[in-house]
Each structure stands twice: as structure tokens, then as C-alpha cells.
Amino acid sequence: MKLKGWPRPLCDETFTSWIFRSAHNKHCKNFNCDEGEAYYKATTRLYELESDSDFDFDFNSAAFVDLCSDHGLPQSLMRAYFRPESPFLCLPYYRFSFCPKCIREDITFHGLPAWRKSWCYITSPICVKHKAILTITDEIPSFYKPWDAFASEPPDSDPQHELLMHSRRWGGISSKVLDVSIAIKIQKWLERLEREKWCLLPGANKPVSSIQVSHVAGVLIKIFLSSRTRFRGPGAARWLFNEGPEYIVSENFNYRESMEFGSGSASPYHRMIAILMVGYVFRLFSKNDLHKLIFAAESSGFPWLKSVEGLGLHSPWFHSEDEYLELVADFYCLDDSVQGRLSHFLTGVECAAYRSKVLDSSKMKFWKGFFPFRDWSY
Ligand SMILES: [Zn+2]
User: Fold this and answer.
1) What angle (nearest 5°) sits at the alpha carbon of residue 99, between those of residues 143 and 93?
2) Radius of gyration of the chain (CA)
3) Is 126 within 8 Å of 270 (Cβ atoms)?
4) Who surrounds ion ligand 1 at CB < 5 A?
5) C-alpha closest to that of 272 among 115, 132, 135, 123
6) Alpha-carbon distance 343 to 308, whole Å?
């Protein structure tokens, strides 16, 4: 895309990043930092889960419409070029993940750093170009976020740098033993679901709807990344491979809100674990990759899950039958082959509901007859 008087957007750049670079571009007389800050402020409501404002991807906000009309920017072209490629977006305030090498290359080749759309996707915790998990900036997000990321860039020579440590939050599976290419394969598979109409699950002979698989994968990721609240444990990706406890979110979220907030605010490390778990449920790993994953987890002191049922059983506890029924409703009406991939996981989720004691007593009695809680193992 080329607009007269404006710098050309970089590949995969966000709208906010482009106007940040435009405001600092000496050849762009149309736009300045005050206008950029005003746009950012008008589209930012920090800390809100149900915020209707999004400085990167809300192309219907009054601030966006005003900015376009004041500066002669064609709205439809802006919407088409800067729209997200994934429906699974990190919450605006928690879009703090970036690739230091990409930022450094931007400075070298373009003079200014740029923020990527893919860094805003829950399902993209890894820079595919540099084959590295994203790191994070600790700065409060602002219009100058790309600069802040450049300024807070951890040096390569210091793997114990505070930012690198924080990007893994409490530590977990060591990056020294985990082959990041395994997670990249899952990330690319998730990306393909957004581009292609049909997909073929490994071992299947009939294609299935990519929209359907993408929806289910998104629900799984949100379950795995659920927030820990005062009354409910976190999703499996937030605690199974962590050193130390997961922090408690003070809000009293219901099940769905915990999923939305937890996934929208998760660190790149937790998001990477979540997409690996999706790969496990859908049986996307080769034998060799699964072996490497199990080795990386176990050599870091974290036993890998012995079954997909076990992963379902590690779903956050339910507070009511309705919470359970609402969750599994997301898995109704699926193609047989997709349903088949999920059956073991859903068996585990059902057991989690029994364990949460939210199903009626006759079901509980039936369940206890087959799976005495104390002897339960997987
Ligand atoms: Zn990169």
C-alpha cells in the first residue's frame, strides 16, 4: 500500500505502529505525535475486559473515523490492509510481546521500530522468522510502544536478563532443551486454518472445515490459559509447567470470563504451552516431536501429560452445572472426525465436572462407581 505523503506500511504492521512511524517521519507532513497520542488516548481504556475500544484493530471507532477524515486516509483501504489475520487477539493492554531481533532489523533498515500484527495474536507466541519465543516489554503501553520495546531490549549476551525471565514468568520448561520448531509447526497450522477453507487432520482421509477446527482450537487455548481467581484454579497451560504458583486475578470472573481474560493477558511462554497442548489434543505431533517434547518437559522437572483425558481433567473446576454445560456446548455439532479428536479430552472435562461436584447426584453416583476419586489416575 502506498499513499502520497505517508510512509509505506511494513509487512504485518499494525495501524497504530504505522501512524507512530508516520508521526516521526520527517517526510510525512500530515501527521504529528500530538495527533498520534490523541488517537491512542481516545481508543484506550486500560484494564477493561469488555472494552469496545482497540487502538490496533477497531476500525469503526469515532477516533479512527475522525483520524481518517481529517487526514484524507481512505477508510476502506485502511480496514483491508490493517485488519487482523487471526480472530484470537490479546487484550489491547496486554499486547506487550515482541521479537527483539525484528525490532533491531527495523531500526537498521527503516530507521524506526514497528509493531507487528502477529505479535498481538494469542496463537502466535513465537517469531517464526527468528525462531524465538517473543519477549515482553515491562513499560506501560503507550503510543511509543515500539520505541519502549527497543529501549528495553535485553542483550543477547545475558540469558538471565530480567525481561527474558519475565517472559517465562515463573520459569518452566527450559528453552535450552525445548526445540521451538515443534511449537512453530503448531503455530503455522493454526495460521493456515485462518487462510484455507478446508484442512486435513493428520491420519484422516476427509477434509474438515477450517473454521470449525479454528473455533475449537480457540476454545481449547482459552481453557488452557484460564486465569486463576480467588475461587478457581488456572488453566493447565498456566500451572502444569510452571515453577511457583500462578498469580491470582482479583476479579471474581465466571468460567467464560476467566477464559477470555486469561488468554487475552497470557505471556508468550504460557501461550506457547497452550498451543502445544492443542497439538497434543489434535494429535499433530510426529512421534519424534512428541518424544522431544516429553524429554524437554521431564528434563526440566515437569512430567508431560500421560493422556489427553488427563489434560481435560486439568480443566479449571466448575462452580455449577450450567458452567460445564455452557463450555461443552462449544463442542456440539462438529464433524465426526473433529469430534473424534476431542472425545478423549471431553471425557476428561466431564470427569473434571464430576470432581467439581456440579452434576446431579445420580450422575455422581454412577461416576464414583467407575472412577473412585482416590484411585483416579491417568
Ligand atoms: Zn523476529
Assistant:
1) 40
2) 22
3) no
4) 99, 101-102, 127, 129-130
5) 123
6) 9
Cβ neighbours, 10 Å, residue 79: 15
Secondary structure (3-state) at 95: coil
Q: How far apart are the CA of 98 and the centre of ligand 1, in A?
A: 8
Strand, helix or coil for residue 71: helix
List per-block mean pLDDT (blocks of 10 residues) for the chain, which spans 378 residues: 90 97 90 93 65 84 93 96 96 90 94 97 96 84 90 61 55 85 97 96 92 97 95 93 83 92 92 97 95 94 91 95 93 88 92 87 57 40
Report the separation in Å between the CA atom of 200 and the middle of ligand 1, taken as the mean of its atom positions: 29
Distance between Cα 57 and ligand 1 center (Å): 21
pLDDT at 376: 41
Positive or negative: CA dihedral 163, 131, 127, 106: positive
Q: 297 alpha carbon to ligand 1 midpoint, in Å? A: 25
Stated pTM of the model? 0.91
Q: Tell how far the Cα of 101 is from the centroid of ligand 1, in angstroms.
A: 5
Asked if residue 183 lies in contact with residue 125, where contact means CB atoms within 8 angstroms, the answer is yes
C-alpha cell at position 11: 509487512
Calpha distance 295→178 (Å, rounded): 8
